[in-house]
Amino acid sequence: MIPEAAKSLLELGPSFSPTQPITASVSRRIVGCLQGLQNRLRYRLKQDNAGNVEVSNFPKIPFPQRYLKQHSPNFEADAKFRIFATDVHNVLCRYKNKKFTSNLTPAQKEGIREVRNLVTSGRVRVCVSDKGGEFVILPQELDKAITDLHLQDETLYRPSSEEEFTKQYRKLNRTWVHIAKDAHLKPSLIARLKLELPICPVLYLLIKTHKLSTDDLTSNDPSKFKVRPIISCVDGPTDRVSWLLNLVLIQLLRYVPAHLSNTKMFLDHLGSAKLSEDCVMESFDVTSLYTNVSNDSAIQAAHEFLMEHHNTMNLYGLSIAHIMTLLKECLSCNIFRWSGRYYAQIRGLAMGQRLAPVLAGVFMAKIEQPVLIREPILYRRYVDDCFVICSTQEEMDKCFELLNQQSEYIKLTREKPRENWLPFLNVEIHLHGGTYRTKWFRKPSSRNIIVHYKSSHPAHTKTAVVRNMFHTAKSVCSGTEEKQESVRLARSIAESNGYVSTAPYVKRKRHVATPTNNQRDTNPQEKIPLCIPFISDELSRSIRLCLKKSGLDGFVNLVDIPSDNLKRRLVRNRLYDRLCLTSNCIICVSGRAGDCMISGTVYQISCKVCGENYIGETGRPLCLRIREHLEGKRSLRKSTPLGAHRVNNHSNNDFEVQVTILAQETDIATRKTMEAFWIRSRCPQMNRKDECLAITNELASYLDLCQLDPQRD
Fold it and tell me: Known InterPro entries for this protein (predicted)?
């Protein structure tokens, strides 16, 4: 039974972000971001003054940098930054003293504690539904039974081991380094896309609540629940290499004849179709597409597309042979964990693998070929949903039969119009007498959850969400009557999410501001992003005024980062799996289980004998860096902090250590700034004087906000 306070909280939706005050940890993040901004400003203005334009073959790489290059001082950049940093400090001090107002009621705050207690006590698992977008609460025993039943499919999974997982990722790393060097890619890129100690992917299931009957909702029979299996590959062996491969392979989709990328593309094709008076329409759905894809056929299809179209594609320095070798290696890394047990997926693609959507798309191109040869009036597909218009019902039946004959595992179901209306994507189509009408569609099972009005998101974000919903509701409609109906539906959805007055979102008056001198020559995409925690719209406006006052508004774009939403706070995909598998782990014993596998940390090592400390930072999993420290201690290497401490302070006698995580931050500039602040505050005796960033005068004043001294932390 879920307590009422917990229900009140969960009804806010997974995307709801609680407000956050200006705490010490928030201030530390802001300081780190400011340090990174100063370094990038120095580089940007130096390049601008020299007339250099940096052109990169790659888009922005979404993985942390391994190294930080400190750029030399620049008078113009430092002068502007000094004004900006001083003003931001004054703003933070002013707002820190204001009374904090939470967007959660006392009951909802209690609800967070209640839900967390239910999870940690082993009673429930919190997840999000497959398509409804709402929270789903399952008894853990039922959740385990559902997953166990799913894993019993021996055509899909087989038992595996940690040793096999290790062997796979090491082979992938060797292959990646060899191919990348052969392709003459930059060493920094090679290192950035290689994971020395990847996390084993983990399986979790999304419940298809839209396929549950009323009786099924209260059932304890695991066979009653339809699920979507997801294998989370974040920080897994293939995560980074597959990002590069996906940049190449996703270009193939524009050569897939039936591929749809969005609703607008579908409506454009529908509008240009030559409809006959007696034509019929249906939608086909591929059953469990990803897990039923033939990997060999998908690889072959990708190779054929590459051979035909590589001259019009950007291969990012790789050859076709390089791409195919890496693709095969990535698909061979098929091991995951659940509840401490290792499994290998032996058929199909894992949903959660970056390459799955594009490979499924090119694979379906082969499946669809016999149907396209028959030239139906319209055949288009969005992932696993097909929309078909044929001249006769007999022709429609033939197309359906052909699609089901192309592969042993690929099977399709069909849906016919009801009262001449057929849903597809987020539209409903009415076809009669050779003419069609369209209107906006929302599934009856959908909870229609959008960002709640009270969520701690910037006002412009919430405004954009609601305006885009109204825009979509109107733009997909073919006539006035359909538009009015769709707008009424959009209004009811907005109101159910706390937007009482929806009038401002229906009609939009555009106001184009006159750019300042600093803004005229800078494309918004070319500005340096300054990502800081979102506190309030009022504070963000004040910081933007600081940018304008300092003359940096033409170079810097302020990006507001909301606090962790309820999904990040409550959902645990690795609920049944420990990240730390080391017995008597010296890192996790003083923190949480799994801390040793966290990447991007500022840490403190304390000698248990004399109490002296060492503070450092690492972008790798913490256990790797601590292992290096312990090896230096074991071998008495005086070039290492623990080795020197053992020789100089303990006459070569061994000592035990305690490891504490002081901060977690993936951005290297922010992390090194935090390291420098902690070292300045705690003066650890094992550190050398020259092994951290120098704190600039512009940021030294922030020490009081960061509260780094031992007594106040």
Answer: DNA/RNA_pol_sf (IPR043502), GIY-YIG_endonuc_sf (IPR035901), HTH_animal (IPR058912), RT_dom (IPR000477)
